[in-house]
Amino acid sequence: MEHEGLTGTVVRLARRHGIPTPVSDTVLALLRGLSTNRRAMSSDSVVMRRND
Cβ–Cβ contacts within 10 Å for residue 7, how many? Predict the structure, then answer.
């Protein structure tokens, strides 16, 4: 995902230089969670059940 390239780079570079980035850390964690949920809920993994 694009957020890995953008926000992830900011977080990694800041850590390398000892700079705290609590907001970027939180944003990255939230975006990663959304990506994980989106993949889990993709149409390929959804099972349709009939109510008989």
Answer: 22
